[in-house]
Amino acid sequence: MTTAGQAPGQAQANLVAIPGDWAYDFLLFTHRNPKPCPVLDVLDAGETVSALKRDADVRTHAPRYRVWENGELTAEPEDATGFWRDDLVTFLIGCSFTFETALVNAGVPLRHVEQGRNVSMFVTDIQCRPAGRLHGPMVVSMRWIPESLVDVAHKVTALMPSVHGAPVGAGDPKMLGISDVGVPDFGDAVEHEPGDVPVFWACGVTPQAVLMKSRPPFAITHAPGQMFVTDMPDFAYRVG
Fold first, then answer.
1. Mean pLDDT, to the nearest integer, of 83-108?
2. What pTM, to 2 d.p., does this model score?
3. Is 217 found in the same domain as 185?
């Protein structure tokens, strides 16, 4: 079940748990690629409770998880406790679902929420800046936005850089190496209304594409669109 449209007003986060001997590489990767990977919290190795949600366990609070071994997806449990390791360092990364309430309040419709679907996500041909052993492409989320409201959507989200900020593209998806917006790499296909144009934001699923390319021996992530919902209000990540 996607968390899009759920818990309005609360910040949501992507989750990546990676062995400690890869954690510096990952931290450096997020520093070099802040647009798709804005870090909200980092837990010590073995720690399972974040300051962003003190009454939740990071192993069970997301609706679904993904287990990765050597870059291959090996399991998608609803509870990751049985797969957890004491050496895992957990990163919580900003999610664009956090700015969706602000978009709605500004009069921008959310087609995927209206249709009860997950947002569409695509692997682009934009390569992230490598860090240590980690490398790979940027993933983007796409929302159909009425053309007359694209500037509004840009201004609203630009004020929230900790949850991906302003779009990285709008209009022609081929600019990002996306051949068909009807066939997402992650999430669901979403129908558009007349006058809508596709608008693309950097996405916190980028680390999963990086895991597939870089092939660390082990990692656990959330399932795309099934986020770690925090107790932080979304406006806490608004600047200006």
1. 97
2. 0.95
3. no
